[in-house]
Amino acid sequence: MKITPQRQLLFRLLHGNLGHPSAEGLFATASSHMPGISLRTVYQTLNDLVAMGELRVINFTTGSNRFDPNTDDHHHAECMSCGGLRDVYLGDLDQVPVQGLDGFQRHATSVVFHGVCIDCSTDAPHLGPTHPATTHPSQGSHTT
Amino acid sequence: MKITPQRQLLFRLLHGNLGHPSAEGLFATASSHMPGISLRTVYQTLNDLVAMGELRVINFTTGSNRFDPNTDDHHHAECMSCGGLRDVYLGDLDQVPVQGLDGFQRHATSVVFHGVCIDCSTDAPHLGPTHPATTHPSQGSHTT
DNA sequence: ATGCAAATCTGCACGAATTGCAGATCAGGG
DNA sequence: CCCTGATCTGCAATTCGTGCAGATTTGCAT
């Protein structure tokens, strides 16, 4: 991986950044330091960093929204391989005390377990993790 | 709210549906039962149900992705008002036993606290919850 | 039954976020 | 200093949703 001024700038902007910036936001800041830098380059670099595990993505736009007619207080387990979701019931987490929330007013808590569902780990136990797409159909939807 | 065949069909498709379907998925299934139904109507109806609290949205496409250079094992608190994110440290949840996961292989766990940050609850304590947009700038990014 | 206004449905254009491509440039080993 | 593969940039294309305007339909009031 070559060292280019664009990358140096982005690394600098990200280092220690606790603001959870978006690609557009970084592009804006980066542009003020280096007019002409391409938004495409920002996306490119961010993707590279994520691939290298040096950066995390929050609330991935995993394609489209999913809907759940189950309005009970529950959580989900998402398969990294097929994208399927399974319901998971945990106790009432809103009562569990949490430190470091300071004045943040908690209204709800959502937990998501990331991993591999039974179907996927069975489909190819010998192969490395499949990439999101291996579908396990189910009435125009996903299940895990 | 009027009763139309389109809505009856969608209600039927959603009732007890544990597959966490996407709008497109429901549209596909709905189309096979009622050729000609509009994708726009599916979105419309889903939005209405969500507004009525009869349906939940999973992993909302909150506009764009956010990046976090902090690769430590941590979680987030998201402000429903300004969209800001704050880091929250919890213990190693991957060790906590969870029931109902059956053969699901847990690789990581992510927790998100939904609520209102200090800034927002201070900005207008007398007003009802603001809608996502009230920004609390911070170097081309968000913080809570 | 019949009339009607308001609520809906549909098709299509538009908007936001992100990626695919192709050609121009640049980093850096030999 | 040269050369080749890695990068950068601009633009087109995609995907998921929403805004709109006109054609229909529902359901209360006759």
Word description of this protein:
2 copies of one chain form a homodimer. Chain A is of the alpha+beta class. Helix content of chain A is 28%, strand content 19%. Chain A has helices spanning 5-14, 23-33, 39-51, 118-123; strands spanning 56-58, 66-68, 75-79, 85-88, 105-116. A 3-stranded mixed beta sheet of chain A has the order 4-3-5. In chain A, a hairpin with a 5-residue loop joins β3 and β4. In chain A, α1 crosses α2 and α2 packs across α3 (39-51). Chain A is extended. Residues 127-133 and 137-141 of chain A have low confidence and may be disordered. Chains A and B meet through α2, α3, β1, β2 and β3 of A and α2, α3, β1, β2 and β3 of B. β1 of chain A pairs antiparallel with β2 of chain B. Chain A binds a DNA duplex (30 and 30 nucleotides) through residues 1-4, 6-7, 22-24, 36-41, 43-44, 47, 61, 63-65.
Based on the model shown, name its key terms.
DNA-binding; 144 residues; three-stranded mixed β-sheet; alpha+beta; homodimer; 4 helices; 19% strand; 5 strands
Quick overview of this protein structure:
The structure is a homodimer of 144-residue chains. Chain A is α+β, with helices and mostly antiparallel strands and 144 residues long. In chain A, 28% of the residues lie in helices and 19% in strands.
Secondary-structure element pattern of chain A, one letter each: HHHEEEEEH
Radius of gyration of chain A: 20 Å
Q: What share of residues of chain A is helical?
A: 25-40%
Q: How many helical elements of chain A? A: 4
| Widest β-sheet, arrangement of strands of chain A | 4-3-5
Task: Tell me, briefly, the overall form of chain A.
Answer: extended
Largest binding interface between chains: A-B, 77 and 77 residues
The fraction of residues in strands of chain A falls at 15-25%
Distance, first to last CA of chain A = 38 Å
Structural class of chain A: alpha+beta
**Strand element count of chain A:** 5
Mean pLDDT of chain A: 87
Mind summarizing the main beta sheet of chain A? 3 strands, mixed
